[in-house]
TrEMBL record:
Residues 36-148 form the YbaK/aminoacyl-tRNA synthetase-associated domain. Its EC number is 4.2.-.-. Belongs to the prolyl-tRNA editing family. YbaK/EbsC subfamily. This is Cys-tRNA(Pro)/Cys-tRNA(Cys) deacylase.
Amino acid sequence: MAGRGTPATALLDKQRVAHTLHSYEHDPRHESYGLEAAEALGLVPERVFKTLVCEVDGKLAVGVVPVTAQLDLKGLAAALKGKKAKMAVVADAERATGYVAGGISPLGQKKRLPVVLDESVSNFETIFCSAGRRGLEVEITPADLARLTNAVVARISA
């Protein structure tokens, strides 16, 4: 399908990683991008993960947590051996990743940021995360996502 390519999908194709793309019509009125994806695709929300860009000790990093959970900033900082974490300014997150908010993928970011996956990824054979555009999710194994992002896996959800 034309127009589905993103840096995330290009990376998956280049690395020959098994994955499935799932698209849906994004509703800009929906309050939560992640919950919208779960509802639109008929998935249990715990299996859909959101990508949150944060600052850990002044440097950008990424936390990937279930859409039903909040990011534990202290847990994220600890996983990256940092002291303090806070949410990044949206413009900084978009500039560093090359994606727009609501479509930020942990894969294929313009600037490769440290990634921490919530340990709950291990509860599923495959998980869903943004493929780099609102309305486009990628289904991938947690092991492949961790390998491609060089992620740390830790408890970072609250």
